[in-house]
Amino acid sequence: MGILEMTAQNFIRAGIFLLAAWAVVFPATAQSEIEIPPASRMALGVETEAIATAAASEGVSAPAIVIAPNGALRTASSPFDGVMVDALKTPGSKVAAGDPVAVIYSNAYADSAAELETRRLTMAHMAHLAARADDLFELGLRSEQEADEAHHDAISAKLSFDALKTQLEYVQRGDQPGQFILTAPAAGTVTHVRPGPGESLGAGEPIVSIFTNGVFWARAQLSERHASALMAGAPVTVDNLSEKGAIVSINPEIDQATRSLDVVVELPTTHAWRLGAALTVSFETLPSDDALRVPSKAIVRLGGADVVFVETQTGFRMVAVDVVSRSRQDALIRSGGLAPGEKVAIAGLAALKNIASGV
Q1: What single string gives the DSSP state of each residue in 96-119?
Q2: pTM for the complete prediction?
Q3: What phi and psi, each to the nearest 5 degrees, are found at residue 125?
Q4: Rg of the chain in Å (alpha carbons)
């Protein structure tokens, strides 16, 4: 066995002995002052880092999912029950408004196409009768009431025609009997195509989804404590990219089960995002004058509170802190018992926590 291995084992044995000694001497209650000789710190693996004054800083980080902005996702739906014959586009395809996207078979299509033509003829006929009634009214051969009724019938016929025409706005006649072609309602990128060929579909069921925007959003969930310090429009760091995103909205309603709320972020436009992709967003915060910055790993939970272990001349003292925000690297805290330049433990915390707890 080498000298280095023997030295390491001796340090470990010394650490175990110290923990056992503290467990015997001190009762099982939390201690605010812990005396640790310099030699014992090495055995326990304790390391420290200085407390810094907080400035505008990256605050809490959270996982997020890429979503489409409001109104940016359009769907092409079948106006009838039917069967999917063929999808003419695949996810990722670029389409223009009016481009064919699917072929569908439906028994109702032929009837609706014929009904549309019938309503068109009726509308034209009623418009002619209304114009004729006006002429006869001018000649004194029709009453004002009869002319008004003719106009009412003409307007009703036009509304009936327009309603069916709107229902069939994105439908074109197919090459085979009973088939029709569904067209894209807007230009963009196809994101979903469903169902598959031969599968049944219902009236109004989305067939093709189209992303029509070049801007992407992301949705993250934050605890109510962290979200309370955020405001709409504040900058957001996304996956460590240099270009910032921005907060679009903060849900004012807190989920009672998770005590969290949704925060929606507009993502930087310099990156190629994908709907549904996972990423990490870090929200920047402007701390108050009494806020300090410490490494996130310096904060531990003890007795239901967040605490740090501050270095003293004889060891460490335990100080309760209020965490304003926290990221993977740093945390913003408030505490009347801390000052910039003091050092907090960032390693060996399990040992310090056990000693403070009297374990």
Answers
A1: -TT-EEEEEE-HHHHHHHHHHHHH
A2: 0.60
A3: -65, -45
A4: 35
Query: CATH number for the 73-211 domain, one of 3.40.710.10, 3.80.10.10, 2.40.50.100, 2.60.120.260?
Result: 2.40.50.100
Mean pLDDT by 10 residues, the chain (359 residues): 48 47 42 82 89 68 93 94 95 95 94 94 96 93 93 96 94 93 96 90 93 94 76 88 92 88 94 93 70 90 92 92 80 85 93 84
- Regarding the domain delimited by 60-70+214-285, which CATH topology (the fold level of the hierarchy) does it fall under? Elongation Factor Tu (Ef-tu); domain 3 (2.40.30)
Letter for the amino acid at 298? A
Residues 263, 230 contacting (CB under 8 angstroms): yes
**Is the backbone of residue 85 left (phi > 0), alpha (psi -120 to 50) or beta?**
alpha
Measured in whole angstroms, the distance separating CA 44 from the mean position of its chain's CA atoms is 42
Pick the CATH number of 3-54+289-357 from 3.40.50.1370, 1.20.1050.90, 1.10.12.10, 2.40.420.20: 2.40.420.20
Q: Using CA atoms, how far apart are residues 323 and 150, in angstroms rounded to an integer? A: 75
Six-digit token string for 204: 């109004």
Tokens coding 350: 């399990």
Q: Which run of H or E residues covers position 237?
A: strand 235-238
Q: In what order do the strands lie in the sheet with 322-326?
A: 52-53, 291-295, 330-334, 322-326
